[in-house]
Amino acid sequence: MSSGGDDAAAVGGVEGGGGGDGELKRASSKKKGGGGGSPPVRVTEEGAIFRSYRDGREFLLTPESTVLAQKSLGADIIIPLDELPPYHIDRASLVDSVDRTHRWEARSLAQHLSDVREQAMYCVVHGGVDRELRTRSLDYLTSLPFDGYAIGGSLGKDASELSDLLRWMMPLMNANVPGSDVDRRSKPRHLLGIADEPSVLDAVINGIDTMDSCYPTRLARHGTLLSRGGKVHIKSGRHSRRYGMPIDPECGCSTCRNYDRAYLWHLFKAKEPVFMTLATIHNIQYMNDLMARQRQLILEDKI
Fold first, then answer.
1. Per-residue pLDDT tens for 201-227?
2. Pick the CATH number of 10-22+35-213 from 3.40.190.10, 3.40.50.1240, 1.10.760.10, 3.20.20.105
3. Residue 147, exposed/middle/buried by CB under 10 A (0-12, 13-18, 19+)?
């Protein structure tokens, strides 16, 4: 179980995209009756101060407290607190953000090493699409005793820019720093906040070991189901009479074994909460099957 991903430890939004998660969006939206709400997050050197969109209370999230929370949850892989600036940001602000993130990650690592508990901690390499900052971040963070390397922050404005970033960045993770005894090649590489199928396949080809994202479950909640024949938009009326037809005939998940598209269409249209459970079960199984195929191709030396 990893505690990384789209909305776990990053302050400022979703890894990879630069947009905020649902809670932050609600908190920053204008209140009824006019007038804007105050910012939901304030970043200081100590950490991030969050304001609850429910009752307005503030609480401080620090590098140390996020580590302790993840340890309490029993996470196998702990992701340190980092700041996620938007894609469009001036370089001076990006430099300040990267430097602050480095200080936070060093504090997180110190907290983790004080009580390891057979848990791992990955660093999060930042720098947006700036090659010099990415290289500096990688060199600094890999000099510290993290157990693995995650790539986070803004990963480009689209899939093409993400692919370009991985093509020039991943070779750096295979190259040890001259005069250093750190073996970068011996540690796993993780990509934060990415799980759409084209980006996943491209990441695997470029040497990424693991990824995490709420993408498959978010799609499921909104009625988009993944299949080997392409995405199934279950709200479409064409599915209302597809009795006996599973989402994906090749899928072995419990949803595909027991429910057809017509019933799932009914659940979605009736706003039955069980739809989200059934759809999520299927989309997660689809992603697991996808990654199993990639692992097999690696074992067969086809990737």
1. 999 999 999 999 999 999 999 999 999
2. 3.20.20.105
3. middle
